[in-house]
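Worked example 3 (structure in, sequence out).
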């Protein structure tokens, strides 16, 4: 699928548009999982990660899709990546939930 998206002055996709696409594709992935359409969930999650490689929800959703499609080795790696991203967050609430000091 070829993308025809407006670019900013640097040739990158505008940040507002990126945020919109992340939300849109993330919602598509969630709906696809609810409908047990794992291939679409995998594709939508991959598109989110194209624009936001640290999106923890999409890492999880793609792992669920991989697991249900039988890609077990790939499914194991993604939750570990999501956990490492989550651990790096120093927001006080996250530290409280994970019993870490700020």
């Amino acid at each position: 699928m070829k993308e025809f998206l407006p670019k900013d002055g640097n040739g990158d996709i505008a940040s507002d548009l990126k945020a919109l696409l992340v939300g849109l594709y993330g919602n598509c992935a969630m709906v696809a999982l609810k409908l047990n359409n794992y291939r679409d969930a995998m594709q939508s999650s991959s598109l989110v990660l194209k624009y936001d490689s640290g999106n923890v929800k999409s890492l999880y959703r793609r792992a669920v899709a991989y697991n249900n499609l039988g890609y077990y080795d790939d499914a194991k790696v993604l939750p570990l990546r999501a956990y490492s991203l989550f651990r790096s967050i120093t927001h006080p609430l996250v530290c409280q939930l994970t019993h870490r000091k700020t």
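Notes: The chain has five helices and no strands. The first helix runs from residue 15 to 34.
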